[in-house]
Specification:
By secondary structure, this protein is mainly α. It contains three helices and no strands.
Length: 65
């Protein structure tokens, strides 16, 4: 899985962090959680805040829809 696979990352985050508190979740923590996913294999240096915010928003919408 790579940084472009927002849906896949969100699905894994839901699985491994089912009780996330979005109000307390920082981009730094989100980054650490993503790179620690067993399914994730992309270069860690390719990410930026915009990508993390997109993942955060997609995850938030998925959980709170």
């Amino acid at each position: 899985m790579d940084w472009d696979n927002t849906f896949g990352i969100v699905e894994c985050l839901k699985k491994y962090h089912p009780t996330v508190n979005f109000e307390e979740l920082s981009l730094g923590t989100l980054f650490e959680w993503i790179i620690s996913l067993p399914e994730f294999s992309d270069d860690h240096s390719l990410v930026n805040d915009e990508i993390l915010i997109q993942i955060f928003n997609a995850w938030y919408e998925e959980v709170n829809s």
